[in-house]
């Protein structure tokens, strides 16, 4: 069976990964007043964050349209027998619901929607694993079973300079976010049940990054499988590269990637965020 792997732009894969692994994506959009930009198509992260600095009214984000999803799925009908469509958490975006609706309307190909319950690097781990398994001619059920296993083993933590947008957008509760903002602390955020929650409250960014480092260290000692990790950032590349270099020196047994948080996620977390996610390294199992 020929299985296509589809995701959305918030996986933040690079061009090489899309092309070499035969991964397809549908973009989410960011909106500046009357200007609509499709992520990874019409706007770069650099342009987005620079533009945000210049405007008074913050942009908003929107999910892929039914038309974009339908067009992509239909374009895959002749080459593939089925589609596994992996997307950012349904608890923070309506994207998955749109995917589910369109999937049920397709007549010529079976589409299997999959809720990553995460975003960015965590979502990307699942997408890349699915692509690898599809190349190995695994069945849909086999791939989804493996995705469930990887999802359970995936940890994702990130630090945001300013929680205002997460609170306003409803991605973080006002209670948790309000306390952190009032105390001027740098909370370590994570995903739990598909929602963004405060994992710990720490006074400085340096100490928060140290906490994430400690969590990775615990995983390397506890897990009986090789680990793959990804350091991510929102327009704070140099700071994130320094952190990645430190992690590579301390954990030579871990395979590290480097990625970014683009416009759609950037709408909510702002500039300066740094995070790290890790899971089982499916390429070394």
Automatic annotation (TrEMBL):
One term of GO molecular function: lipid binding
Stored PROSITE patterns: DEGV (PS51482)
Keyword annotations from UniProtKB, A to Z: Lipid-binding
A Pfam family this chain is assigned to: DegV
Membrane-spanning residues: none
InterPro entries: DegV (IPR003797), DegV_C (IPR043168), DegV_domain_contain (IPR050270)
Record's signal peptide: none
Name recorded for this polypeptide: EDD domain protein, DegV family
């Amino acid at each position: 069976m020929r299985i296509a792997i589809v995701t959305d732009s918030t996986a933040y894969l690079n061009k090489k990964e899309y092309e070499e692994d035969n991964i397809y994506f549908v973009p989410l959009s960011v909106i500046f007043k009357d200007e609509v930009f499709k992520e990874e198509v019409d706007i770069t992260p650099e342009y987005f964050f620079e533009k945000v600095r210049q405007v008074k009214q913050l942009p908003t984000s929107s999910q892929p349209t039914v038309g974009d999803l339908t067009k992509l799925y239909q374009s895959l009908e002749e080459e593939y027998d089925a589609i596994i469509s992996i997307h950012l958490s349904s608890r923070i975006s309506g994207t998955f619901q749109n995917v589910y609706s369109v999937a049920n309307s397709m007549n010529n190909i079976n589409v299997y929607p999959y809720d990553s319950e995460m975003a960015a690097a965590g979502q990307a781990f699942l997408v890349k694993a699915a692509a690898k398994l599809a190349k190995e001619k695994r069945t849909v059920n086999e791939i989804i079973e493996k995705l469930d296993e990887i999802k359970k083993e995936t940890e994702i933590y990130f630090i945001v300079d300013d929680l205002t947008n997460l609170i306003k957008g409803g991605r973080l509760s006002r209670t948790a976010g309000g306390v952190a903002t009032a105390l001027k602390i740098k909370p370590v955020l994570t995903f739990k049940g598909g929602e963004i929650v405060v994992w710990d409250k720490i006074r400085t960014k340096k100490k928060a990054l140290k906490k994430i480092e400690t969590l990775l260290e615990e995983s390397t000692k506890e897990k009986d499988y090789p680990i793959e990790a990804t350091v991510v950032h929102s327009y704070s590349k140099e700071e994130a590269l320094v952190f990645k270099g430190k992690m590579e020196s301390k954990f030579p047994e871990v395979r590290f990637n480097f990625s970014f948080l683009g416009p759609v996620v950037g709408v909510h977390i702002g500039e300066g965020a740094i995070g790290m996610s890790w899971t089982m390294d499916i390429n070394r199992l």
